[in-house]
Design a protein that fits this description.
Oligomer: single chain
Number of helices: 20
Number of strands: 29
Distance between the termini: 21 Å
Shape: globular
CATH architecture of the largest domain: 2-Layer Sandwich
Length: 594
């Protein structure tokens, strides 16, 4: 299918046409045409097409969109039109077909992104007028970040404020999602095995922490203003400046807000918003430009350190966006001083980056523990890919699956058994579990944390190479330890916990809150149209208290008994007190391919 993508701003319009076939990966899509209109003025604008940059007569976004069919004369057969929408609120975790109801809903979200959504929606309305017979799809910058936990998205402000929708959302989602997928492809690993920090550095800039396939934090907040220094946006500031500037300069809220968006960042520090101009001035001795560069790099480096700490380590740092792709000196400034975490650039590789034909450059020093990659931003491609997948028919009808609430338990390694029960001790298999070859031991252990203990904790066999302790979030508060949500086996960077047995104690890492998942027999998976690594949504509980759990990982094996596992907190939230079933929603190829 052929997707036309619009990315509209108040003074620019980027557009592209992409050919995708069912089951295509990101690297398989064919770019039919890409162009952009920039810097609308009464005299016209800059037009960039494959033939080269020229001056075009279009003076506004509306004129530019109406001119697009002329430039796409050789790119007929468009199947659908996709629009980048900056803010989708909390409801949209994926592409949405534009209907009158959705259009009204998006109008209501405008206060959350007053400088971005209006231009996005204007492009959508014009496209519907020009191509009335084509389906229009909205893809939201915020969707990728809806997996961020509440501790990352909640502002510590009064409840009445939060009730209005005030929270952190994150932006550049399509870019960060593309970056993570391409990085995983290049490194030959699955996203769910990696901890990635994506730095999208352009006129707008943001950092994103992507842990084991999910965005867990993003530097941008409710509107796309918080976080890194940008071309004209301030990034992080003390909110107390509103009161201070009102008292000292008599400025109103609207004036301050406009200045933070349009006259701050690099422009506020140097008078110019383009990093190329800033670097030229710095090299000529301009002290303001030199300070701006140092602030820009310092802010990015701080976020790298913070996000590596939040994820318990770092496997890959990825640079993208105009500055991330084209400024080797900025990449160097950001990375210098991070040797302590195993991150070092190679001087020659960093200078020789070539991203032609979609190439990805690796620029870390040989032997460095953290991979450092540079790749071209491809938001439009990611948007086209998501819409194409959403348009493919669901592979199957809804499927029901048994659900088991998994109480706290431990999986022990041989060293732990010896420390807790004595050298040469063998656990006594007790009750067999539904998963073939698994059992609950007759023995029990106690978990000991800085706040308290939890006794009589089950041990599940057989033994593993590494001890893993699975608790609920509520258990974590009882113990006084903040356990991360992880898939089983993803234990690097997890907290330590003390286990107490009749013969001694064993201190170990591996404390997690197990991410919800489905064990699925190979035959059941084939019948359901699912493969190992698929992520699905599952509806649990009754109509009154039921919940839909998103992003549930499917693990497929020949020996598995098909069953969904959730923890006790999740079961309580869904009103499940005994045996239950969940309904796996129909999925597209995008979900079923993982």
């Amino acid at each position: 299918m052929r997707i036309l993508v619009f990315n509209a701003g108040s003074s620019s319009l980027k557009f592209g046409v992409f050919d995708l076939s069912p089951g295509d990966g990101l690297g398989d899509a064919r770019v039919v045409f890409k162009g952009s209109f920039d810097r609308f003025t009464p005299r016209g604008c800059d037009l960039k097409t494959p033939a080269g940059r020229t001056h075009a007569p279009q003076t506004s976004l509306a004129e530019a969109i109406r001119a697009v069919p002329e430039y796409l004369a050789g790119a007929s057969g468009v199947t659908a039109i996709a629009h980048r929408i900056a803010h989708g609120g909390e409801a949209h975790s994926g592409p949405a077909l534009v209907t009158p109801d959705l259009r009204a809903e998006l109008d209501a979200l405008t206060p959350l992104a007053p400088l971005h959504n209006p231009a996005n929606l204007a492009a959508l309305d014009l496209a519907q007028e020009i191509w009335p017979d084509l389906p229009q799809w909205a893809v939201f910058d915020t969707s990728f970040h809806l997996t961020n936990p509440a501790r990352a998205t909640t502002y510590a402000v009064p409840a009445a404020w939060r009730a209005t929708g005030l929270r952190r959302y994150g932006f550049h989602g399509s870019s960060h999602k593309y970056v993570a997928r391409r990085a995983a492809e290049v490194l030959g690993q699955e996203m769910r095995a990696l901890r990635i920090i994506s730095l999208h550095l352009g006129n707008g800039a943001s950092a994103c922490a992507i842990a084991y396939g999910q965005s867990i934090d993003s530097s941008m907040g409710m509107p796309p203003l918080e976080g890194l220094v940008m071309g004209t946006r301030s990034g992080d500031v003390d909110p107390g400046l509103f009161g201070y500037l009102h008292r000292e300069l008599g400025l109103g809220v609207a004036e301050i807000e406009a200045a933070l968006y349009r006259d701050s960042g690099l422009k506020g520090l140097t008078g110019v918003s383009d990093m190329r101009d800033v670097e030229a001035r710095a090299a000529a001795g301009d002290a303001d430009a030199q300070l701006a560069i140092n602030i820009y790099a310092y802010r990015a480096r701080k976020y790298i350190g913070a996000y590596a700490a939040a994820m318990g380590g770092l496997d890959a740092l990825v640079f993208t966006g105009g500055i991330g792709e084209n400024a080797p000196s900025m990449r160097r400034r950001i990375c210098d001083g991070l040797d302590f975490m195993g991150l070092r650039l190679d001087h020659d590789r960093n200078l020789a980056v070539n991203l032609a034909d979609g190439a990805v450059a690796q620029v870390e020093a040989y032997g460095a523990r953290v991979n450092v990659l540079v790749l071209e931003a491809a938001e439009q491609l990611m948007i086209a890919h998501e819409v194409a997948q959403a348009m493919m028919p669901a592979r199957r009808a809804a499927v029901r699956v048994p659900v088991a609430a998994s109480a706290r338990h431990v999986h022990l390694c041989p060293r732990a058994v010896a420390a807790l029960f004595g050298e040469g001790y063998a656990l006594t298999p007790g009750k067999p579990l539904r998963q073939k070859g698994h059992w609950a031991a007759q023995e029990r252990v106690t978990l000991h944390g800085p706040r308290g203990e939890i006794g009589n904790v089950a041990i599940l066999g057989p033994l593993r190479d590494r001890t893993q302790v699975e608790i609920s979030r509520t258990d974590g508060f009882a113990l006084g330890i903040d356990a991360p949500v992880r898939q089983s086996g993803a234990l690097d960077g997890t907290p330590q916990i003390r286990l107490i047995g009749p013969a001694g104690v064993f201190d170990t890492d591996g404390l997690i809150i197990a991410a919800r998942h489905i064990h699925m027999n190979s035959a059941d998976a084939q019948a359901a149209g699912l493969s190992d690594g698929a992520r699905v949504a599952v509806r649990l509980g009754d109509a009154a208290r039921g919940l839909t759990f998103a992003d549930v990982l499917v693990r497929v094996s020949d020996a598995a008994f098909t069953e969904m596992h959730i923890d006790t907190d999740e079961a309580n939230a869904a009103g499940i007190t005994s045996a239950a079933e969940g309904e796996i929603a129909p999925v597209s190829a995008e979900l079923s391919s993982g």
